[in-house]
Amino acid sequence: MAFSLRTATRLQPALRIASMRSSRPAMRFMASQTSSKQATGAATASPTMSDAIEQPFFPDEPTGPMVRTAIPGPESKKAIAHLDQVFDTRSLNMMANYQNSFGNYLADLDGNVLLDVYAQIASIPVGYSNPSLLLAATSPDMASALINRPALGNFPQHDWAEILETGMLKVAPPGMNQVFTAQSGSDANELAYKAAFMWKRMQERGGDADFTAEEIASSMNNQTPGAPNMSILSFKTGFHGRLFGSLSTTRSKPIHKLDIPAFDWPQATFPMLKYPLEQHAEENAREEQRCLEEVESLLTGYHNKPAAVVVEPIQSEGGDNHATPAFFKGLREVTRKHNVLLIVDEVQTGVGATGKFWAHEHWNLQDPPDMVTFSKKAQTAGYYFGNPELKPNKPYRQFNTWM
């Protein structure tokens, strides 16, 4: 997806003109009819102010919702019944028709069109059938990326550095200049946790020392010292994913965790602020201080020592819970005091959702987080970091096929 983001950036101005000058029906088929040469040539065009006023960016976007049947309607019910024979449909909300979905509106098979404020669990940042992305899909870069998907750790393509520099790293959080890519938000957090554990053990060894024979042998039996008893501290009602490590830090809903073995990792209380904020300032400050003291107690006293603290800028899935910048500044101070990493989970809050590209930028930290994880609206996933010591000391320690 990084390839498509870079291509879309290059083609966006031209696409805006093309979409404005085309008729509404033709727009639906632009992607299939545009040749690679046209896409490349269009990238050199530039819009004018008069063009910008002519037509909306999404010429096919409905003017409002339209409900023609009960939801699900008869056609959707047929499709759901068919899908249920081969796929678990019990969490299904709506059977979508993406070919008829434009801008902020999601269509179903029965002609119903709804204003979508859910955005595919916060993962569609620029609307359905986005004209720039439709045009980008016709580019040689996109075709090559889809047909020749590389095992990035072993066979990155020749311009992978440029793709990272002009894509993910162009919007890197302050203080971060490196990225490790992943496949999903859960995966991004899982990899950040692994980086924290490897960093912590390197610190305990006094640097980049070779593994001992005992460490090597015991790791294969899931025993110490090769598989050390460390932990990640998370917060009650937080959500960080559904893989084994990330699920152990998820505390939002029992349905995610039931029947799944979990690591013995600590949890601290996230501040529960009272509103209106201006009427409870002193009380809320005491609540945040109490939570910070609890964090510090766990960092120093928990039997499986934390290598990192993971926190969401806004607890999203766990209930829309907020804290003030003062709390997060205190969290950065206490983690730094005890040589514990701070991981900020921006999977849900990142990419512009709060008025800044990264929600933690509102905290105005002088000392940035150690890692920032991302996914969803970014259309890719991974974690940012700046400290070169967070890069594992040997190859294949942080690795998967597609990275």
Quaternary form: single chain
Morphology: globular
- Low-confidence stretches are 7-50
What's the name of the CATH homologous superfamily of the largest domain? Type I PLP-dependent aspartate aminotransferase-like (Major domain)
Q: What is the number of helices? A: 16
Q: What's the order of the H and E elements?
A: HHHHHHEEHHHHEHHEHHEHEHEEE
CATH class designation of the largest domain: Alpha Beta
As a whole number of angstroms, the C-alpha radius of gyration is 24 Å
Strand order in the largest sheet: 3-9-8-7-6-4-5
Instruction: Classify the secondary structure makeup into a structural class.
Output: alpha/beta
Distance from first to last alpha carbon: 12 Å
The CATH topology of the largest domain is given as Aspartate Aminotransferase, domain 2
CATH architecture of the largest domain: 3-Layer(aba) Sandwich
Helix content: 25-40%
Secondary structure: number of strands: 9
Question: Strand-residue fraction?
Answer: 5-15%
Summed over residues and divided by their number, the pLDDT gives a mean of 87
Note the main sheet. 7 strands, mixed
Number of domains: 3
Keywords: Aminotransferase, Pyridoxal phosphate, Transferase
EC number: 2.6.1.19
GO biological process, one term: gamma-aminobutyric acid catabolic process
GO molecular function: 4-aminobutyrate:2-oxoglutarate transaminase activity; pyridoxal phosphate binding
